[in-house]
Amino acid sequence: MLKPKLIAAVAALVVVVGAVAWALVGGGDEPDAGRPAAGASSVSTDPAGVLKAAATKADEQTYKLNLGTGGADGDATVVLWDPKAKRGLETTSLKVPTGEVKIERLTTGPDVYVRISAPDRRVPVWDGKTWWHVGAPGSPPALQGLDNTKLAGTLTTASAVRQTGVREYAGTLDLRESGAVLGEGVAGVLGDRVGAVPFTASVDEQGRLVRYRIELAAEQSQTAQLDLTYSDFGLAVSAEPPAADLVGEDPPANIPGA
Predict the structure, then answer these.
(1) Among 38, 143, 155, 185, which residue carries the largest CB count within 10 Å?
(2) The model's pTM
């Protein structure tokens, strides 16, 4: 009964905070770090340039990311992430007939741990207590799911960008080379659309990405989406290793990232 949801969790979570190419290196922690002095003309006003700059800014500060898929089932992911220290916690909640499955992925910099809580105990390793040590970020590389810490980077492929409102934009994305971020199966899912996927995005007064929606695919007259909201820039992110007596080594195959 939980298996379909676990598969969905892997597709939405496996790479996440501990994914391939974790070197998210940006500028200063302060919102104005690296900003040109007054009167400088290097800040782009071209819509595509604005979004590329916003994608870069996602690597400069800690942030909170809320991620949904446009569905009505209530499944959601929340990420608290420090891109410079490569530390953070991601929590995915999945609704199932018997309640809720919660998957937590903790990245402490050098190590990644996963803990799963399930409403029944037919899978003992999903006990909500054990933090399974799944290795270092990117080792072994996981190529099946989303790397939520890198999703903003897909904006660098934006084209036909137009401004639709105050700091609001729309256009299309070329996701043919985005397998490491969206999962290796993205091209097969999107088919001929992979080179021109519609999106909308909004930035704040400081040029930081705050809303981003990628329109993925239509199924049964409903559009599947990745709907991202960035907030709480500069928040304190604490990600310490779990207590030794709560850590499990050699995680079984039904632990995402194992």
Answers:
(1) 155
(2) 0.78
